[in-house]
Each structure stands twice: as C-alpha cells, then as structure tokens.
Write a structure and sequence with these properties.
By secondary structure, the protein is mainly beta. The chain has 1 helix and 7 strands. The strands form 2 sheets. The chain has a 4-stranded antiparallel sheet with strand order 3-2-5-6, with no helix packed on it. It has a 3-stranded mixed sheet with strand order 4-1-7, with no helix packed on it.
Length: 112
C-alpha cells in the first residue's frame, strides 16, 4: 500500500511539473562590411517587414560594424535589411530570419 501511495505521489508531482518555458526574444546581429571585407562603423541599418507590416526599425553600427536588434514579441519573423554608408552612396541589402531563443548573424556587404 505504501508503494502504491508513493508511486501515486511521484506520478502526480511529475504531471504537475511543466516543461514549458516562455520563449525568449530572438536577436539579429547585423554586420556591415565594405567591398574590401572591412567592417563599416557608423553605417545606417534599417530592418523592415513585408508590405503592410508594422515592423520598421533602424540603428547605427558600432565601432565593430555591428548592430543588434532584439525582436519583441518572441515570434519568428523574416525581415529585409538595408544598410547604407554614413560617408558615401554605398548601400547593400540582405534578408534576416529572426527566431526566438536564438541569435541570428547576418552580414551585409555595401558597395556602389
């Protein structure tokens, strides 16, 4: 009888314990490089969603030519990346897929 009661308590505690975890926002790490493969600091980066989407964010790369964007809420999304040089007419485009719980690295090459 004690074994059955112990088994029942153990089973109940396992059923009440959930494995579900709230998803964490996805992060896009955008790196901007020039035609010589050098990183471009102070480049303007814009992320936009498809037509009719509410997503349109922009930022400037740091001294390593990188810019981080954390997508909130924690949903998977595919965004267009547009990067321009702050000193000239160079530009580049790419696509980034942001997935919850992950950091996605995307490199954009800017050129004339």
């Amino acid at each position: 009888m004690k074994k059955i009661l112990l088994l029942l308590v153990a089973t109940t505690s396992l059923l009440l314990t959930s494995c579900y975890q709230e998803p964490v926002n996805g992060v896009a790490k955008i790196t901007v490089i020039d035609e010589n493969e050098f990183r471009v600091p102070s480049a303007n980066v814009t992320l936009t969603g498809p037509t009719g989407s509410y997503i349109s964010v922009s930022g400037i790369t740091d001294f390593n030519g990188e810019w981080l964007y954390e997508h909130d809420p924690a949903l998977e999304v595919i965004l267009q990346v547009h990067a321009t040089s702050s000193t000239g007419p160079e530009y580049g485009d790419a696509i980034v897929r942001i997935v919850p719980n992950k950091t996605t690295n995307e490199t954009v090459k800017i050129q004339l």
